[in-house]
Specification:
The complex is a heterodimer of chains A (115) and B (109). Chain A is built from no helices and eleven strands. With 115 residues, chain A is mainly β. Classes of the chains: A mainly beta (115), B mainly beta (109).
């Protein structure tokens, strides 16, 4: 069974479009995250939700809006896509919230290419 | 930057040799974790070391932590071709997770 799943795996779109990436975890975890990994493999946290509540919101353009309908799902909607948004986006989950010794479980990633 | 800085950026060794990669950081941490990323895949947790621990082992992995020097090392012994991947340290500060810049390891059969 897939622990953390993301859809789609690949996303190619034109500049200016709006797109969404979905994430689901079946681990029963309370916390979910979105990361962006650039071409140099630098991994940067974007958002973190704990039980559907936003707890981390890094300096991310407000074109990016996370939505958590329940604690097993954390979707990422991106408006007015720009070339610089091209990256691999990873969803992750962990049992507890920040401060714990919990490890993170990552999804397979969504490779977004903006043309 | 609060992220970990990893050294070396890239490492190429022969199968059977040991691989050592280092992570240095600037902030206080609750624990430090190491993750592995195969090409085109998500990160997979390898090992966690708490701030009050100095060394930890898991199979062929050995992790050390020196909080006074704010550095950690990951040693992979008797490397295999299947160990080829990128390795990241992750700092848990209690408020945040910060990932290192990664070391790309290539194990030549």
């Amino acid at each position: 069974d897939t622990a953390v799943s993301q859809t789609p795996k690949y996303l190619v779109t034109q500049m200016g479009n709006d797109k969404s990436i979905k994430c689901e975890q079946n681990l029963g975890h309370d916390t979910m995250y979105w990361y962006k990994q650039d071409s140099k493999k630098f991994l940067k946290i974007m958002f973190s939700y704990n039980n559907k509540e936003l707890i981390i919101n890094e300096t991310v353009p407000n074109r990016f809006s996370p939505k958590s309908p329940d604690k097993a799902h954390l979707n990422l909607h991106i408006n007015s896509l720009e070339l610089g948004d091209s990256a691999v986006y990873f969803c992750a989950s962990s049992h507890g919230i920040r401060g714990s010794t919990d490890t993170q479980y990552f999804g397979p990633g969504t490779r977004l290419t903006v043309l | 930057s609060q992220q970990g800085e990893e050294d070396p950026q890239a490492l190429s060794i022969q199968e059977g040799e040991n691989a050592t990669m280092n992570c240095s950081y600037k902030t206080s941490i609750n624990n430090l974790q190491w993750y592995r990323q195969n090409s085109g895949r998500g990160l997979v947790h390898l090992i966690l070391i708490r701030s009050n621990e100095r060394e930890k082992h898991s199979g062929r992995l050995r992790v050390t932590l020196d909080t006074s020097k704010k550095s950690s090392s990951l040693l992979i012994t008797a490397s295999r071709a299947a160990d080829t991947a990128s390795y990241f340290c992750a700092l848990n500060t209690g408020n945040q997770f910060y990932f290192g810049t990664g070391t790309s390891l290539t194990v030549i059969p």
